[in-house]
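User: I'll paste a sequence; please echo it back and then give the predicted structure.

Assistant: Echoing your sequence first, then the prediction.
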Amino acid sequence: MIDDRWESMKPSESSSADGSFAKTILNSLSAHVAILDANGVILESNRAWKRFAKSNQIRIRPDTLGINYLEICEQAGNEPSLVAGGIREVITGKREEFAMEYDCHSPDEQRWFYMRVTRTPAPGPMRIVVSHENITALKRAEAALKSQKRHLEEANTALKVLLRQREDDQHEMEKNILDNMQHLVAPVLARLAATRLRDRQKDMLASLEERLSELTRPFMRRLSAIESRLTPQEIEVAALIREGRRSKEIADHLGLSIATVNFHRRNLRRKLDLRNTSTNLRSFLLGLNH
């Protein structure tokens, strides 16, 4: 019975039913949609388009049918004029579609939209579909991600500074320990070893020296690991730098040119990972081998 009724439906009734269904679909869309003819005249618009145009008094998005949308856009200013040009290119077939993002802020809130213009694929008279989708939530999410990325980059930079400071502090601590060992503890132990000691006292002194050696051994191992990456001449230059010799003095002592000594200095800084130019090379070397 349904098939019979459909087949017997008059053309006007079928067209009316199809049009009503299409309009229902159009009104169910969240995007603001209008259908234009080849001249840019609005033939139909959905409920979202009408509601937005009415509540926001948007001149370039009129809700009145029969209005020429292209003329409205061209009269409205620079960006709407760009929209009119894009729509004309779609109408003439110069491009398949025209799309752009734009802001449409109100006194109460910031809003962004994505506009898309296409030709309908259906046969018959040319029709142009213009849609405006509210992408405010997406733009806010993008802004939040950018802000989060910026905060992470700032935190990463701060962490690198803290780690570098920690390394500098560690080097300073090692330097102080080795300085104290060399200038304060070692002389006392040497004088003590030169005195007449009983066997038990000698054993205690040997034990003390061994414990102190264990304390400084990690620092010396690190120095040995670094020296394994240096050439013999770089090790010689490093030793003279530790003694406080200037480039000219090092050059005279090793029979090299000052340019060669400065070349070795640059290599030492690179191999020791001294990227910060404010870090003194001699202070760093003293912290490794005192």
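The two ends are 105 Å apart (CA to CA). The domain at 31-134 is CATH 3.30.450.20 (Beta-Lactamase).
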